[in-house]
Amino acid sequence: MTTTTNDEQRQAIFRAIIEAQDAGTLVAQSRTEAARQFGVTVEDVKAIEREGIEKQWPPL
Q: Can you tell which superkingdom this protein's organism belongs to (predicted)?
């Protein structure tokens, strides 16, 4: 995980992933788009996604 992502940034990334998937974007594509949008790696996005699910971040 990049050291530059704080809680607020991680939650914004998580929200973007979930909203994209809810809109019909494929999981892999939503991760790639979020990584590009927020300047992190896809691996970072996957870790953030796991964290968001575990902690039940909105919009879950």
A: Bacteria
Contact 16, 38 (CB under 8 A): yes
**Single-letter residue type at 22:** D
60 is a domain residue: no
pLDDT digits (tens, 9 = 90+) for 1-57: 545 579 999 999 999 999 999 999 999 999 999 999 999 999 999 999 999 999 999
Cα–Cα dist 5/23, whole Å: 25
Instruction: Provide the residue range defining the domain that includes 11.
Output: 7-55
Work out how many domains the chain is built from and give that number: 1
Spatial separation of the C-alpha atoms in residues 1 and 56, rounded to whole Å:
19
CA 25 to chain centre: 13
